[in-house]
Amino acid sequence: MEPMESERGMTMGNRGWLERLREYEAPNVTFVDADGGWPIVWVSARGEWVWDVEGRRYVDLTAGFGVAMAGHRSPALVRAIRAQLRSLLHGMGDVHPHVGKVELLEQLSRITFERWTGQGGGRRLRGRAVLGCTGFEAVEIALKTAQRATGRPWVVAFEGGYHGLGYGALNVTHRELFWRPFESQLRRFGCFAPFPGREEDLGRVERCLSRLQRRRAIGAVLVEPVQGRGGIRVPPASFLPWLRAWCDRHGALLILDEIFTGFGRTGRWFACEHFGVVPDVICLGKALTGGFPLSACVGRSDVMESAWPPSAGEALHTSTFQGHPVGCRMALEQIRELERRDLAGRAAGMGAWLMERLRGLRPAPGLEYEVRGLGLMVGLEVRRSDGGPATAVVLDALKRMLVRGFLLLPEGADANVVAFTPPLTVSRAGLERAVRALGECLDEAARATTRERPDHA
Ligand SMILES: Cc1ncc(COP(=O)(O)O)c(C=O)c1O
Fold first, then answer.
1. In CATH terms, is domain 5-70+343-456 a member of 3.90.1150.10?
2. pLDDT digits (tens, 9 = 90+) for 396-431
3. Local confidence band at 122 (pLDDT 50, 70, 90 cut-offs)
4. Pfam family of this protein, just one (predicted)?
């Protein structure tokens, strides 16, 4: 009798599955290291743990690209999915709404604009949203919103910024690697300003924006409050308030991409709350559902009303799976759980503790470490003593971490930043072991890299 697929999985191991994958997946999707050290093949996950086809267990310090904010397959989420499956598995997006979508839109307004406005006697404003499927779609809805609300085509984004890889989002994602191969098909409406790392950099940003503004009709400024894929870069405290004022002065929309930073990741519900800034539009995705492709572009109600005319039958932005019932139900449960367990508060405490522990690591010979972050969005940048990025060391160290049972990703254009974005429920013991192991793996990787390429130590 043929073995069940799952039984075969356990006997085949990671290598066997990766060979099958390589036969059928287009070559550019999954990086498979020739030495077999990367990647592993997942079969299940729960809380902070992931298991591979060989039955090995890993601490997931990525939260699966920052999605599993309350842990993988949290019991509350699984219950919500089960309940939803008993009634409605598919809806009709922009034509016949379902109740979960209405409830989610109300909640998105409540946790964003209604929470941010109305203090001190000011008017409480609503948020109105367009739902999408992926993060980049939320960004593209925001770009369309800016074009329609201001009539101006240009968008200022930031060096190192990542907003996804759809043809619209590619215009504002900075890294050349992603857009260059498609350049001839892109209508470029994005321009870039430096992303400041320190207060001293603000002058340069200001001059660049003034220059761009003189030459181009700028409808929006799009920014991640903390750059994630750009290498966990935290701007100085005055940056976002300054950008807010700049946008107000020039009639441009301030669009915050909180796809990575939202839902408690940085120790507040949204990262903009650290800086006291209310955007015109906010993009949400990833942890919104905890594990379902659903995203949202939420704008201040007056902005959305000026951008989007009432539908006369055909929506200007929608898709077949818009506002998927399972995704909406999961998002409602995820928001409830994050609030009930005050996971944003936990991220603030654990993140501070993690950064302190990482700062205690003694750099391997010939290397320098810099630790930065906000809440549980933490990066350890590794440089050689000549200042160059220690990419080879970081990549080697992360493969060693995988062998030791820790999932981590490199971030930054040079892939020399070890990023920690674990579930906010991660245990202190798990983090403690990870920090110790990382110190050792970086030491081992530094020694191995020096042996192999002495001139690149
Ligand atoms: C800040 C930010 N914006 C947008 C995206 C794109 O989201 P998605 O991959 O769901 O399209 C990402 C993904 O990492 C992101 O970090």
1. yes
2. 999 999 999 999 999 999 999 999 999 999 999 999
3. confident
4. Aminotran_3
Mutation probe of ligand 1 site: the residue of 259, 281, 292 with most atoms within 8 A of C-beta: 259
Q: How far is the CA of 232 from the centre of ligand 1 (A)?
A: 14
- In CATH terms, 80-340 corresponds, of 3.40.50.970, 3.40.640.10, 3.90.550.10, 3.30.43.10, to 3.40.640.10
Cα separation, 85 vs 80, in Å, equals: 9
Q: How far is the CA of 10 from the centre of ligand 1 (A)?
A: 32
The neighbour count for residue 225, using CB atoms within 10 Å, is 28
Residue 455: pLDDT over 50: no
Residue 270 has pLDDT above 80, yes or no: yes
Q: Report the pLDDT averaged over residues 179-189.
A: 94
- Sheet with strand 377-384: strands edge to edge: 367-374, 377-384, 417-420, 409-411
Q: Is 224 in the pocket of ligand 1 (CB under 6 A)?
A: yes
Outline which parts of the chain fall under CATH 3.40.640.10: 80-340
